[in-house]
């Protein structure tokens, strides 16, 4: 079984500057995907970024980047130049590669 854990599963980003959100997971699989989504006040879930387990380079998408540590099973999201539009609830997710 796979589990995903966030210290604060619903973390709202409101301040400006650089923000880091932490996520850890557990799995016995070697190939998988990890995702970050955000849910703004309007309610829809918005895809932010995806990391494949076998990719050596950390994924980036505009102001978003991840720090993926496969051995430590850690997958943190970094939001640079945080803006008011980033005020939302953030969720990390896991998916098997099959």
From TrEMBL:
Which BP terms does GO give this entry?
Answer: adaptive immune response
UniProt keyword Secreted, yes or no: no
| Organism ancestry | Eukaryota, Metazoa, Chordata, Craniata, Vertebrata
The organism's superkingdom is given as Eukaryota
Keywords from the named record: Adaptive immunity, Cell membrane, Disulfide bond, Immunity, Immunoglobulin domain, Membrane, Receptor, Signal, T cell receptor
Q: Gene Ontology terms, cellular component aspect? A: T cell receptor complex
Localization: Cell membrane
**Record's SMART domains?**
IGv
Pfam families per record: V-set
Main site of residence?
membrane
The protein's name in its UniProt record: Ig-like domain-containing protein
Domain (Ig-like) spans 1-98
Classification via PANTHER family: IG-LIKE DOMAIN-CONTAINING PROTEIN, T-CELL RECEPTOR ALPHA CHAIN V REGION
């Amino acid at each position: 079984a796979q589990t995903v854990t966030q210290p604060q599963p619903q973390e709202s980003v409101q301040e400006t500057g650089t923000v880091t959100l932490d996520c850890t997971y557990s799995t016995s699989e070697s190939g998988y995907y990890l995702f970050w989504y955000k849910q703004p006040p309007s309610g829809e879930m918005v895809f932010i970024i995806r990391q494949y387990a076998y990719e050596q380079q950390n994924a980036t998408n505009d102001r978003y980047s991840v720090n993926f540590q496969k051995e430590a099973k850690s997958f943190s999201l970094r939001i640079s130049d945080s803006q008011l539009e980033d005020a939302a609830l953030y969720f990390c997710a896991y998916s098997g590669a099959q």
